[in-house]
Amino acid sequence: MRRNVSGISLRKGLLLCSIAMSFGLPAAAVAQTSGGGATPTTGAGAGSSAASGNSASAPGLSKSTQTQTASIEDPGPFFAAPMGATHFFGDWGGIQPWLQKHGIHLLAAINEEFAGNVTGGKERAYSDAGQVGAELDIDWGMLAGIRNFWTHMLVVNGHGQNVSRNFGDSIAGVQEIYGARGNVVAHLVSMYGEYAFFHNRIDISAGDIPVGSFFAASPLFCDFMNVAICGNPAPNKYTPGNRDWPSGNIGAVIRVMPTAHTYIMGGLFAVSPHAYNGGISGWSLGQDGLGKLSTPVEIGWMPTFGKKKLVGHYKLGYSYDNSQYDNLYEDKNGESYQATGLPARKQAGMNSTWIILDQMLIRNGAGQTNGLIAFAGAMYTDGKTVAMRDHEWAGFVESGQPWGRPLDTIGVMYQHFDMSHTVALQQEASQALGVPYISNQWGNVYGVQSHENTYELFYSAHVARAMAIQPDFQYIQRPGATTTFKDAAVLGVQFTVVL
């Protein structure tokens, strides 16, 4: 990994997606796994305690089959366990080595983000938002002899609110961590089991899973504070079938790797009709109305180029949700439902697609992200039922090795958001009728929405073991995707520590 200051990314977003997309520690990105997803912990360069999957013997295979497959290249486990050596309190007085010897990986982290707009927006405002998270990952091969089987659980406690809502922008919140996470001591983010076989070429996970921790995920996203990218890109994570931090969907994911550098991944998830999956606390997994399904699929290529093994990740994905959703503008006759008073037309199904890529251009040292990396991507979803039609982004991140600060990171990113034509028709109808604008998946609306641009620059400085401070600057053009408020300049700082 580029730096070891945080073993997580509890965004998402512990602390994407920030231990996204995803704990959600933004500056401490989630691990890029050998598959397409991102586990809720880091440690891709940290050595994996699931190495039992690297054996030439695979459970469930006959001896002759094992012999035939012994030469198959093992891409390594999908899950990379947290690095115990990167805790602020060291080895916890000898507790961490004992836990890891028994396959128990316990991680706790704190993330605090302060931000305020110095110009523009509806009003001058500032906010502190933070999160405490704890992650428990168990290698049951080491603990109980059940080879290649892991369980994962992540809980968080949050406080504060995103300052963007105060200055009139609900599209691209400048803080990725915000909200009380249900006003409970431990809000459940994820809880699932994982089993790998056939030399880790096939990996199956099932349980309560944030969809964005596997699909359309990248460890680079939560280097940035803006929640539109951390730990999983908008608009998908705001749709019921593809929820991400701090919500999960009941479901399963299977990842198959035809080669050590390619994968095919598919999922099947229950779609919750409720505002909060698992209730506001996340623990109410037996919610009613879970009859519909979302089915994301993703293919990926992870090449390395040249003698320095410049690593890249190239992903293409699609998701379909077979639920019915209200058209944002039309009634059954194709007219404005606000004007006619008739119910909104029901739309069958919701589609989304994405393309994500990153490529290391210059290597500074060992690790998948230790160098200058260019990244870009785009995501599209149905504009008739989702207020945001598409989202594009591009940027660079660089580790601090060239200037003698190998654990530091600097990054810059541009994001563009287009709101849907259908939601604009809805808002124009509200305007013509003299009624309040209807809020959407992103929150309050202050005018007819069209598009928004954001620019972000950060520098994350490693200041102590497992601790970083990250000054951050963001410029928001057309806050709320309207011209109602002036462009906003936002200064922020983020503090992260893995205990």
From TrEMBL:
Annotated signal peptide: 1-27
Record has tRNA processing as a keyword: no
Keywords: Signal
Low complexity bias (residue ranges): 39-60
A molecular-function term among this protein's GO annotations: porin activity
GO biological process: carbohydrate transport
InterPro entries the record matches: Carb-sel_porin_OprB, OprB_Porin, OprB_sf
Protein name: Porin
Species in which this protein is naturally found: Neoasaia chiangmaiensis
